[in-house]
User: Which sequence fits this backbone?
């Protein structure tokens, strides 16, 4: 373990048998992770068994002492969290690795999901020479937009809550309307954008004074309209509305919305806590006690977020420098992610293609996962090896077109499906089990 001033702590794990590859893994949430947490130890063990020299950082603060975004009132810690810690840890890690083995790493890789996905994109944009291959999973790339969305969702739910007990009815209505839009009724919504779900039209209304779990009041429908609708400021879209499909229950029997968007218990949701901490300590830290989430005004306050957007968001579409140094990047996103808006990932990928042209696929590809929750789970194929795909791409020139992913329940694989390079999607060939990837092909939508 080591420390880079002022408070960036890092660890480099060096295997006995080294494959001459250096790998750095990303963080989650507001980071500050303990380097000896169970999750960190698991990732380190996996990396070392595969022969990687593995690095990790706490990004410059300790979340045991500074919860959520409280660290960000210190401007240096904010910058370290946003991007600086990534570069200095990678630089130190590769130097230490080279000194230990007597030879520099031949290839370097970064892998992260959620905040780690944002870090992955941030590296490709700010430090394009640091890594040869990058995996960006479910990136919170538009961090400020995500927090604005959290705030407006919290305000809508405060005005008219949607009870957890009604999520089963909500999911059933959505899936009955959307499941077969791809030509196959299989319990998955292939692309939520193809589903024209309208709460006011498609949900059962409660009779006056007859509220029950199988119907929705006008106020509840109004809240859902806001959640699924685009977030607009001064008439301009600033963040996409939430895609449908996360409402369904996962393997644990709980809706994907559980904890993130609604709770069955009185505690605040995770999105509320994240949003509140962001506005209080990151966006407006100079205000007395920061900004209360309920006071956020989408029209008045959106322009005030420009400064934090420039520091924290990884939305720059110009990846020319990363492309020119022959870097390769794979991004993936679960369409049923209840924590981060999957459309955000699609919008970013399309912005890069618009900026750099159709040759973008030579170095950057996106894979969407139907039915998959945040960084895995859900009812879709959430298990695959993105790092292996990027290693083969960076070292052997094998660009991934089709990746077989699986859904695993109780240690058993119950379904496999191909993930296709966006914009292609998996299409059933017309015969054979719908639970086997070999019976699907990648095709234009």
Assistant:
């Amino acid at each position: 373990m080591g420390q880079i001033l002022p408070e960036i702590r890092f660890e480099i794990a060096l295997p006995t048998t080294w494959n001459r590859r250096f790998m750095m893994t990303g963080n989650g949430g507001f980071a500050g992770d303990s380097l000896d947490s169970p999750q960190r130890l698991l990732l380190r063990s996996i990396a070392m068994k595969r022969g990687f020299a593995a690095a990790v950082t706490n990004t410059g603060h300790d979340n045991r002492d500074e919860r959520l975004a409280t660290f960000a009132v210190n401007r240096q810690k904010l910058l370290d969290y946003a991007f600086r810690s990534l570069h200095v840890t990678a630089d130190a890690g590769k130097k230490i690795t080279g000194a230990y083995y007597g030879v520099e790493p031949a290839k370097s890789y970064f892998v992260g999901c959620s905040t780690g996905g944002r870090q992955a994109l941030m590296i490709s944009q700010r430090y394009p020479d640091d890594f040869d291959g990058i995996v960006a999973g479910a990136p919170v790339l538009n961090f400020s937009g995500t927090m604005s969305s959290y705030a407006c969702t919290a305000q809508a739910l405060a005005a008219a809550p949607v009870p957890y007990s009604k999520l089963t009815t909500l999911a059933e209505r959505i899936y009955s309307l959307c499941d077969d839009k791809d030509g196959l009724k299989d319990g998955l919504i292939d692309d939520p954008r193809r589903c024209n779900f309208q709460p006011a039209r498609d949900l059962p209304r409660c009779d006056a004074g007859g509220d029950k779990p199988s119907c929705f009041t006008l106020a509840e429908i109004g809240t859902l309209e806001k959640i699924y609708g685009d977030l607009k400021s001064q008439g301009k879209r600033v963040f996409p509305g939430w895609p449908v499909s996360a409402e369904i229950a996962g393997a644990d029997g709980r809706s994907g919305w559980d904890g993130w968007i609604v709770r069955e218990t009185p505690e605040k949701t995770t999105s509320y806590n994240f949003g509140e901490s962001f506005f209080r300590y990151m966006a407006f830290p100079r205000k007395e006690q920061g900004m209360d989430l309920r006071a956020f005004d989408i029209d008045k306050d959106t322009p005030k977020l420009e400064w934090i957007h420039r520091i924290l968001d990884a939305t720059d579409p110009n990846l020319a420098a990363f492309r020119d140094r022959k870097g390769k990047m794979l991004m993936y996103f679960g369409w049923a992610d209840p924590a981060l808006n999957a459309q955000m990932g699609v919008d970013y990928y399309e912005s890069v293609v618009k900026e750099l042209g159709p040759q973008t696929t030579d170095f950057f590809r996106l894979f969407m996962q139907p039915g998959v929750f945040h960084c895995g789970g859900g009812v879709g194929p959430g298990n695959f090896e993105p790092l292996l795909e990027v290693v083969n791409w960076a070292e052997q020139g094998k660009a991934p077109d089709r990746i077989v992913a699986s859904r695993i329940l109780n240690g058993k694989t119950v379904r496999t499906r191909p993930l296709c390079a966006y914009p292609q999607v998996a299409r059933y060939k017309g015969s054979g089990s719908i639970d086997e990837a070999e019976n699907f092909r990648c095709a234009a939508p």
Observations:
- The chain has 13 helices and 14 strands.
- The chain has two domains: 2-142+314-399+417-423, 145-310.
